[in-house]
From TrEMBL:
Protein name as catalogued: Sulfite oxidase-like oxidoreductase
Signal sequence residues: none
Cited SUPFAM superfamilies: Oxidoreductase molybdopterin-binding domain
Domain Oxidoreductase molybdopterin-binding: 35-179
Region (Disordered): 1-23
Domain of life: Bacteria
Stored InterPro entries: OxRdtase_Mopterin-bd_dom, OxRdtase_Mopterin-bd_sf
Length: 197
């Protein structure tokens, strides 16, 4: 059966089963930032995980790059309705970062340089579902897209993928982050359209 492009700028969902409901395909890579792009020299960059004990585990840029990393091929979905298919990233799995960390808490808050925060359940960060990504399309991640490194949680709406990420803090409760305090859904599953509260 023939498939037709309907309307300007997007194909209907039934033309690609990888497109969640209410989303449109884009070939661009839009930049969406709530504030100015922070510039963090790699020499000053670090990533930290703070457990409920108060223990903080940190990696410098060189320590972080020495960790095992993975190529990630995935689709991404913004709550503003664009989706981009077949993106390619390189990053360190969140599982790798948590290998030596003692925590029983079920939630994390991602913290970024510049002050952005977003809350994510550990169930959405562990199990090969999330990375700290430092390359896109075979090149270092552009500052506009979160470089030196960003959280990548591609199965949730892209606001969960905190750019310029500097750490995760373990949380007892699923307290809202920046956009979640401003009306976005606490969880953000694009397949069930968890867009807003
Ligand atoms: N630190 C930070 N991370 C952020 C944002 C932001 O404003 N600040 N915007 C979020 C939103 S709403 C989206 S859609 C994606 C956009 O990522 P991009 O600019 O690389 O497309 O980043 C997310 N991560
Ligand atoms: Mo977004």
């Amino acid at each position: 059966m023939a498939e037709f492009t309907r309307g300007f700028g997007g194909r209907r969902r039934e033309s690609d089963p990888r497109l969640p409901p209410g989303q449109y395909l884009t070939a661009d890579f839009p930049v969406l930032s709530a504030g100015p792009t922070p510039r963090i020299p790699e020499s000053e960059w670090s990533f930290s995980i703070r457990a409920e004990s108060g223990q903080v585990t940190s990696w410098s840029w060189s320590e972080f790059l020495a960790l095992p990393s993975e190529d990630v091929h995935t689709d991404i979905h913004c709550v503003t309705r664009w989706s981009k298919l077949d993106t390619t990233w390189r990053g360190v799995s969140v599982d790798t970062l948590f290998a030596g960390i003692d925590t029983a808490y079920e939630y994390a808050m991602a913290h970024s340089y510049g002050g952005y925060t977003t809350n994510v359940p550990m169930a959405d960060l562990r199990g090969g579902k999330a990375w700290i990504a430092y390359a896109f399309d075979g090149k270092p991640l552009d500052p506009e897209h979160g470089g030196p490194a960003r959280l990548l949680v591609p199965h949730l709406y892209f606001w969960k993928s905190a750019k310029w990420v500097r750490g995760l803090s373990m949380q007892k409760h699923d307290d809202p982050g920046f956009w979640e305090q401003n009306g976005y859904n606490l969880h953000g599953d694009p397949w069930t359209e968890e867009r807003y509260w």
